[in-house]
Structure formats: C-alpha cells, structure tokens
Inverse folding.
C-alpha cells in the first residue's frame, strides 16, 4: 500500500538523525563505515545520507553566477603575479545593477564575486591591506565593488557569495609579506582592532594561528559581517606558489564562517565540491553521496574529486565515511575567466549555455557560470544577449508543466517539495486530460528526507495503443532532466529498474523545448567532399565537448548555394557530403519554418592532386612549396594556424611565389597577418591580379612566437 510522508524541510538539520526507515537506521549528513560492514550494509548506509538544509538550499539555487574581476581585467592576464601596481585597476565606472539585471534575466539566483583572486588584490575596503581597490584611482580610492554588488543583489533579489583565494601572491612576493613568513603560532583575537575602523558586529574569536592565517581570518570577518548575508564562501584550491611551508588553518576558518554566515555553504571543503573540470562537462551519473577516507568534519586537506565515477557502489565500498557533498558544474561564458576584449575573445552561445544548464541542473548538480565584467565595469553586450536568451529558453521550457491536471499519484504531481511516493510498487502511471506534445521530463527524489536511492529508471509513453520506452537513465537525486525527440501522448509510465533500498519520488513534470535552427559549419577533405553540420563551438579555451546543437535542435533541414546567393527552402537541400571545388558556399538550417543564421565560407581548390615539393621549418626564413598537379588560375589563398595543446604561433609575414617548372620562381605579392596569438582564425589574402601556375611557394619571413604551423591552407 502506498504511503505519503510529509516533513518540514526547514527543521530537517537536527531532526534527520532521529528519522528512521527500513530497519531503524537514522538519516545523517555523514555516516561512518565500520570495520566488517558488509557491502549490503554499506549500500543501506549510503541510502541514508542526506544533505543539510544549507546544502539543499544551495541545490535549489540551481543556476548561479561567478564574477571574475580585478587587475587581470586590465592586464588581460588569466593569473596575475601579485606585484601589479593597484593603479592598473583603471576602473572609471561600475554598474552592478546591470550585472544583476542580466543575471536575473538568465534565471540565476546567486552571484559569487572574486573578492580576492590569487594576486591578493582586494575589491573591498579592507582594513588589513593597501593592495586593493583603496589604492586604485576608482572613486579616489573609496570605491567598493563588493559593497555595490551587495546593494544590487538586494535590489534584484539575488543571493551573494564571496570567493576569497587562500593563495595570495602579493603576500608571497612582498618582502614583508605574511604568507609563509615562518611566524609562530600564538593566540590571536579576531578581528584585530584598527583605529578609526570599528566593527558594528562585536563578535570576537580567539584562535592559535600564524600571521597569514590571522590575516585571512580578519579579511573573512570583514566580508562576512559588512556586506549583507553571505550564502557561499568559495575557496579555490590553486597554489601558484608555495612559500615557507605555509598551511591553512581550515578548522578556524570553518568555525568563523559557521558563526558569522550560518546560511553559507563552503565550496572546496565538505559542503560543495568541484565537478572535476572547468569546461561545463557533466558526468552521466553524478552521485552526491560520496566516500571519504576520513571524517570530513575533522579533515583539513580536501582533494579534488575528478574521477569519472565518484559514488558508484564499487567506490562506496572503498570509503571510510559516506558523506553528502554536491557538485558545482563550473565554466565561463567567455574564453577565459577574465575579460580580454570584445573582438577576439569568444562568447558561448545561448545554445551552449542552455545545453550545459539542462545537463548540469538536470544531472544532480549546480550550474556555476562565470561572466567577467569588461573595463567599463559592465557585462558586454554579447554576454548579456546570451544570458537573456538562455533565461528566455528556461522560462519557456520549464515555466509550463504539461502534466497540469493529470491524474496519478498526487504526491508526485502536487508540486510540493515535502511530499513523496515510496516506490514499493516499482512503477506508477500518469494520465493527462488530453494528448500533449513533450520532449522533456523532469524527475526529483525526496533527498532531504530519504536520500539518493534511484540507480536506474525508465519512462514510457502510451503511443499507438502500446507502451513505448522514450527515455532511460541512471540516478535522479535532486533533479534529473530527461531529453528525447518530441512525442505526443496522453499517458506516461515511470519504471524503477535499480535502486538502493526503496526510493522516494517527490516530483514528475513534462515539458516542451522549442528547437531552434542551429548555426552551421563546414568541413572539406582532400577530395573536396564538403560536410555541412551544426557548428561545434570551438571555444579554444575549455570546451565541454558536447554537441549543443545536436542535443537541442533535432529535426532541422539544411539548404545551400554555391554562387554566393542567400539560400532558401527553394535551394538545394543538403543530405550528405557533396564535392565542391572553389566556390562561395552559403548554407542555412530551417526548423519548423524558422530560418537560422546564414553561414558562408569561400572554399578553395580540391587538394587530392597536390604534392609537397619542398618545406623548411624552424628559424626564419622558412618556406613551403607545392606542386598542384596541373596549371590553376589563382586569385588568393586562405591560411589558418595550427591550434590546440602545444601549438601557439603561426605565419605572420611572407611572400607568395609561383613557378611553371618548380625551379624558377617569380614573386606575386607579399602578405601579412596580425594577432594570430589571440585570434587564430582563418585569414584570407586576395591578389591584386589573378595568376596562373602549377607550382606555388610561400616564403615565410616572420612567425608568431617562432612557430611555423599550418592548420588549414586553401588556394582560391
């Protein structure tokens, strides 16, 4: 017989230990594995690990923002060295309202500011250093980015978090720096009083710490007491340099955070963990119940968890403790954590961001997206456009539940977080009042009260008088979004296939995502065979490796032209690779009558008959000579340097020569390409007058960073 259990989530933190089910085992945030525990008992314990109220609230944020801002914004560096003159932070204006408006439009619920990055430069008016905004020209040294952002967050209803780098290159590199100065551990009072700068919060702490830990604790006290409620404290694990055997007194940091910011989760320690990459990649199965080698409450060192599987059965058996620790899937909307420019720095499309959102939030994690402000103190237009379009898609897709009015277990259909259905019968059915067209299903477990238990599940739809499986997946946890080609049905069936004890399903809803025509890209092989396909976003920095267009926009058709005219649905339809030789190719995707962006590219000669005549690399000058197989009329060429790991550089200057016999050469023109390091995109050089030749030669006279690399070379 099915039962409904209802609990008040806000009181769960301390009552979880007294809640029992199936044999009397208590629900806890951390459970010890005892010597001799059977595998069956370990799995039972894993099924009784639950998040704290703070962890649950952090999961419910779902989509949150990172803000990387500081001297690197102006030096165009990813990592500063700590010795930058604070005046290089040449900020003239700041518009944190614009940030929050864009983040709110995207559907984000919290923003985390890099109040101090690894360079040690602080973005608030700290009492304990001059290396920060107080020594810049912004607002005559009186500016405070954290204060302005806090006010904007309250105005727009966003939560605020702070990133405070434990590593501090200013304190490492300065002659009198505190980091690793070998000072003695003595009893210190936090905060240290500073004449003329009293604290409104009179809480005092006493810790036995060294100079750097005292400095860090004093700064933690400032940001946690003077900038409104803080909901996440983000500790980066990066160590650009180590000095003097410096260690961090994490137990003292934790005590201070828990006292001053009782609603905050701590990233990088036992509350929230890294997903294992910075590219927006997601694990197919992301368990938040994970094994630990020791009690996380007493640990001081926390390793990054980067394995492909973290909480599977085999992993749980190896642990000493089982602990709830959720993942944040983090990446940047731009190519790099800090803003560089609006010309060459790539920006993720809304397709890309929305795809990561569905995989991250719908894969039992939180999506943390970095948006770096520009040197005008604003988000750049392309970033704002992508954020707003992403938010529009989230609202359009998940703002309407297509199971509204359906009949079935009310505890999974009522939209309440504190009711759930115990899956003793292994399946349930939902009947809609009339047929609906759907391509998304959202599922949630009652993790706060019953833990993560589903290991494998499937959903069927009633189609043409029979059940048809439309989606199958592994775990659910906080949330699972199932994506599948659109179907029309009036009845759905959930089937539990594998589990850790009896799961509790708290939610099911169905949704429809309106596909958009993808932007297209082209590939041409040596034989001239051209493939037209959705453009994979070649981020160059850190790509998540997923085909966002393929995930989101199935069912489109492609039309193309080869004479430079705009393609329409009356143009040739692309169905398979086609051989093309020297043409102006344009193509467009059409989906449900909607046209996408027209893509175009000048294609070169078919290369199958080309032979290498001569090549010299290394130091200047270098050359590349080719035999084209027969005489060709040429009016230019296209060049793209090699990119990827280990490649940086390319041809920046040279001359183009031709020959009729491969021995006697005549110069056609000189050429020059700029900024290949920051922008390694394809470049075109057109001749003033066309030439005819069988043999061609590139004499390279200058190379970026001394590397002669060729990714693509086309003759036009």
């Amino acid at each position: 017989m099915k039962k409904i259990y209802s609990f008040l989530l806000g009181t769960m933190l301390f009552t979880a230990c007294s809640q029992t089910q199936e044999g009397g085992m208590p629900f806890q945030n951390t459970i010890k594995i005892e010597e001799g525990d059977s595998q069956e008992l370990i799995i039972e314990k894993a099924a009784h690990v639950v998040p704290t109220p703070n962890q649950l609230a952090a999961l419910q944020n779902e989509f949150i923002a990172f803000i990387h801002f500081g001297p690197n914004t102006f030096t165009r560096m990813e990592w500063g060295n700590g010795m930058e003159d604070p005046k290089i932070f040449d900020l003239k204006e700041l518009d944190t309202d614009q940030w929050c408006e864009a983040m709110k439009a995207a559907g984000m619920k919290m923003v985390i500011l890099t109040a101090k990055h690894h360079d040690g430069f602080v973005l608030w008016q700290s009492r304990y250093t001059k290396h920060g905004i107080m020594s810049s020209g912004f607002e005559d040294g009186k500016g405070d980015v954290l204060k302005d952002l806090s006010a904007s967050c309250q105005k727009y209803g966003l939560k605020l978090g702070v990133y405070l780098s434990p590593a501090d290159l200013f304190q490492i590199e300065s002659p009198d720096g505190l980091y690793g100065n070998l000072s003695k551990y003595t009893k210190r009072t936090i905060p240290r009083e500073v004449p003329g700068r009293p604290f409104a919060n009179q809480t005092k702490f006493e810790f036995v710490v060294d100079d750097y830990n005292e400095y860090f604790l004093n700064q933690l006290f400032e940001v946690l007491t003077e900038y409104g409620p803080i909901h996440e404290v983000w500790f980066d694990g990066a160590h650009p340099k180590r000095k003097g055997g410096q260690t961090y007194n994490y137990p003292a940091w934790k005590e201070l955070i828990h006292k001053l910011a009782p609603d905050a989760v701590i990233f990088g320690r036992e509350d929230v963990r890294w997903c294992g990459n910075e590219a927006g990649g997601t694990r197919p199965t992301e368990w938040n119940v994970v094994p630990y080698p020791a009690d996380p409450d007493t640990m001081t060192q926390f390793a990054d968890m980067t394995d492909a599987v973290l909480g599977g059965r085999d992993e749980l058996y190896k642990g000493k403790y089982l602990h709830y620790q959720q993942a944040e899937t983090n990446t940047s909307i731009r190519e790099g954590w800090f803003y560089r420019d609006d010309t060459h720095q790539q920006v993720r499309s809304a397709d890309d961001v929305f795809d990561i959102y569905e995989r991250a939030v719908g894969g039992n994690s939180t999506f943390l997206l970095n948006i770096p402000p520009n040197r005008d103190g604003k988000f750049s237009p392309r970033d704002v456009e992508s954020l707003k379009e992403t938010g529009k898609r989230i609202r359009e897709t998940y703002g309407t539940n297509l199971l509204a009015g359906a009949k079935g277990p009310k505890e999974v259909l009522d939209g309440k977080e504190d009711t759930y259905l115990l899956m003793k019968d292994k399946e349930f059915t939902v009947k809609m009042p009339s047929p609906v067209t759907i391509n998304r299903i959202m599922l949630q477990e009652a993790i706060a009260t019953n833990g993560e238990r589903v290991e494998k599940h499937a959903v069927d739809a009633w189609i043409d008088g029979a059940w048809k499986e439309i989606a199958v997946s592994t775990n659910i946890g906080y949330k699972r979004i199932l994506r599948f080609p659109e179907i029309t049905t009036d009845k759905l069936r959930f089937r539990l296939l594998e589990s850790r004890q009896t799961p509790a399903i708290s939610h099911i809803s169905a949704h429809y995502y309106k596909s958009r025509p993808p932007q297209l890209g082209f590939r041409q092989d040596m034989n001239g065979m051209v493939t037209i396909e959705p453009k994979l976003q070649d981020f160059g920095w850190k790509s998540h490796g997923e085909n966002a267009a393929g995930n989101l926009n199935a069912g489109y058709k492609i039309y193309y032209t080869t004479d430079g005219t705009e393609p329409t649905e009356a143009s040739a339809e692309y169905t398979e690779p086609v051989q093309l030789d020297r043409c102006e190719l344009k193509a467009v995707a059409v989906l449900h009558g909607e046209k996408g962006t027209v893509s175009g590219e000048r294609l070169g000669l078919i290369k199958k008959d080309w032979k290498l005549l001569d090549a010299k690399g290394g130091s200047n000058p270098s050359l590349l000579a080719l035999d084209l197989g027969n005489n060709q009329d040429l009016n230019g060429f296209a060049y793209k340097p090699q990119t990827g790991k280990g490649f940086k550089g390319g041809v920046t200057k040279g001359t183009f020569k031709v020959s009729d016999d491969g021995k006697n050469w005549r110069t056609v023109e000189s050429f020059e390409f700029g900024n290949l390091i920051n922008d390694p995109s394809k470049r075109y050089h057109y001749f003033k007058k066309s030439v005819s030749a069988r043999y061609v030669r590139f004499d390279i006279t200058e190379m970026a960073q001394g590397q002669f690399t060729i990714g693509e070379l086309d003759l036009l």
